[in-house]
Write a structure and sequence with these properties.
Elements lengths: L12 H22 L8 E8 L3 H13 L5 E4 L18 H4 L9 E2 L3 E4 L7 E5 L3 E2 L21 H8 L10 H11 E3 L6 H6 L6 E4 L7 H12 L14 E4 L9 E3 L9 E3 L1 E4 L2 E8 L9 E8 L2 E15 L2 H11 L2 E2 L1 H5 L7 E2 L10 E8 L14 E5 L10 H4 L6 E7 L12 E8 L7 E3 L10 E3 L6 H19 L10 E3 L12 H11 E3 L30 E3 L14 H24 L1
Parallel strand pairs: 1-2, 1-15, 2-12, 7-8, 15-26, 16-17
Antiparallel strand pairs: 3-6, 4-5, 8-9, 10-11, 13-14, 14-15, 18-21, 18-24, 18-25, 19-20, 20-21, 22-23
Length: 592
């Protein structure tokens, strides 16, 4: 049976009034119900995982299969994919799924102003606040993203490991073990070198595009080759697409009779609790000397509930680079000044929310001859990874062979609705700064757990970020000038040429274009940094939060340095590595 793609339309005032009215009625019903509620269940689990995104799902799966006779509670603020809109299941509509708040936290960044790098006497506005999508659904952002599998460079993981001898467990060899264990690569007839670097039995399905790229995208490769850019069929980049399903954790269910007279026994399983918004961590208040996590307090179906961990259990935060630091700060772990101004008791002063890393991207758009674009494409079919020039010049051939590239340019079909106001056939070249120098931060706006934190991206605060972005955009222009793009497909750039004098674009015009057009590529990380405490760390090498017990964080927020590529695969890797650390510690506790 055929199914039409759902149409995204803007809500009007009448829609908003209806929403508010239904919420009012729902709230009245909950309050009336509470008048008669006399009992509550004391929930106890071996592990409580906060967040059912990539990290939470991988971690739950590995723990339930790695430790016998345990039960796990996974709390997810959103719902299952099947309860969401139909866009999630369609790869070609990922950019529309990001715009729907039923699967998104709806974050918006703070306005950013700074001195111009080209003309320092001028003040420029980078962004007046941009939507900052974060998945609020089973699978988290992996249910909404463009399905690109990239691990990043070995050098960056070795940099993680260089922070001290105990951090060696995060070097490239250890991380590669996790990548391979997770990966299920479907490439036909792989050579021996490929086999050494990839896994074929994991749950992270990775495949090359079916039937290859179509004509205009294939010819884009030829255009890039004309400039001396080498072809590589395995850089873990855009030419590999990924699908994933870690939910076989839910398939392991056992029952063990309880020993207590009034006990119900113990169900060995993963309990995923949807629409459960975690409010804060529950601490052992009887122990005034230590910060011992004993559970979490959360809001579900109009009620505040509590879940506790067994004596040797742990609370593990897997809520991503925005929500994980917010939960820690609401629980009293974070910057002293920000906590006190929001009337939160400071339990442990740590730089939570600092070190916000992201990959800013800037789009270069060109229209092409009609009927050359396949709109069923999920996009991200071709990737150009290169080193940019720090002076803003077009990269030279030596930059294409540099062992430490800092940019990836994704070539995507220009689909209707992808860019507001443009409904033409064409190509979008998305230059993404993979190794940014600028660092942002986030902080609490209030002690209200439903309030958005203030997100400060600080894009292009460092001048080298700006000039490297200009360099990459200039490369995109040159690629589109090459045959067959300029000849067969009659590709013509738009937007940048509309606002400037054609090829004669000044640095000031480039800066204005970059600051106006740059957006997030949905890769926030680093806000709960894994590092020595003396070096701005929030968690140690085993992902345990400093100054606490029974509390870890395992997601993209722990990245000390952001990987040079899409962050889904590295996030899964971190969760897999975390599971091994947790299993080691749990086994040791039980042997005492």
């Amino acid at each position: 049976m055929s199914q039409e793609v759902p149409i995204v339309i803007e809500k009007n005032q009448e829609d908003l009034k209806k929403d508010a009215k239904i919420r009012e009625l729902w709230m009245k019903n909950i309050c009336d119900h509470d008048k008669h509620a006399k009992f509550k269940i004391k929930e106890t689990y071996d592990f409580i995982i906060v967040g059912a995104g990539t990290a939470g799902c991988v971690l739950a799966r590995e723990l339930i299969h790695g430790i016998p006779n345990i039960n796990i509670l996974v709390l997810e603020a959103g719902g299952p994919n099947v309860h969401a809109n139909g866009l999630i299941s369609l790869p070609c509509t990922w950019f529309k799924a990001f715009r729907l708040y039923d699967c998104d936290w709806g974050y918006v960044t703070q306005e950013q102003k700074m001195k111009s790098h080209v003309n320092p006497i001028k003040e420029v506005t980078v962004k007046k606040g941009i939507p900052y999508p974060r998945g609020k659904v089973w699978g988290g952002c992996s249910s909404l993203n463009a399905m690109v599998y990239i691990r990043g460079q070995a050098k960056q993981y070795n940099d993680w490991a260089a922070q001290g001898p105990e951090y060696k467990i995060w070097d490239w060899d250890h991380c590669l073990e996790a990548f391979k264990a997770l990966e299920n690569n479907s490439r036909e007839n792989p050579d021996e070198k490929f086999k050494q670097l990839h896994g074929f039995n994991g749950l992270h399905h990775v495949q090359d595009p079916q039937n290859g790229a179509y004509d205009i995208m294939s010819d884009l490769i030829d255009a890039a080759k004309n400039l001396g850019i080498p072809y590589n069929d395995d850089f873990n980049g855009e030419r590999q697409m990924e699908l994933e399903d870690f939910r076989d954790a839910l398939k392991k269910v056992e029952f063990h009779p309880g020993s207590e007279p009034n006990g119900f026994g113990k169900v060995v399983a993963v309990d995923v609790r949807s629409y459960s918004h975690v409010l804060e961590i529950i601490w052992d208040e009887e122990n005034q000397k230590e910060n011992i996590a004993i559970g979490v307090r959360y809001f579900c179906n109009g009620n505040v509930r509590e879940a506790f961990i067994a004596p040797k259990g742990e609370v593990i935060i897997c809520s991503g680079a925005i929500n994980s630091p917010q939960i820690l700060m609401l629980s009293g772990v974070g910057p002293k000044e920000n906590l006190e101004e929001n009337n939160i008791k400071v339990r442990k002063e740590l730089p939570v929310g600092k070190n916000l890393l992201d990959h800013p991207g800037c789009c270069f758009i060109a229209k092409s001859a009609p009927n050359t674009i396949h709109h069923w494409s999920s996009g991200a079919e071709i990737g150009i990874i290169h080193k940019a020039n720090v002076e803003g010049k077009i990269p030279c051939k030596e930059d294409f062979f540099d062992e430490n590239p800092d940019f990836q340019t994704i070539a995507m079909p220009l689909q209707p609705g992808l860019v507001d106001g443009l409904n033409v056939d064409g190509i979008l070249l998305w230059s993404i700064l993979n190794v940014p120098s600028s660092v942002g931060y986030l902080e609490l706006n209030s002690n209200n757990p439903f309030d958005q934190p203030r997100i400060h991206l600080n894009y292009f605060e460092k001048s080298d970020d700006l000039y490297r972005m200009i360099s990459s955009l200039k490369l995109s222009r040159e690629i589109l000038k090459q045959p067959p793009m300029s000849t067969v497909y009659n590709v013509k750039e738009i937007e940048i040429s509309d606002k400037t004098n054609g090829d004669d674009i000044s640095d000031e015009d480039w800066e204005k274009f970059v600051l106006e057009k740059s957006v997030t590529t949905f890769h926030p990380s680093g806000t709960v940094k894994m590092a020595p405490e003396s070096n701005g760390g929030v968690v140690n090498h085993r992902l345990q939060v400093y100054g606490t017990k029974n509390l870890r964080v395992a997601d993209a927020s722990i990245f000390p340095y952001i990987p040079s590529g899409n962050t889904n695969a590295p996030t899964a890797m971190v969760a897999w590595r975390a599971s091994r650390l947790i299993i080691e510690d749990y086994t040791r506790k039980n042997s005492l």
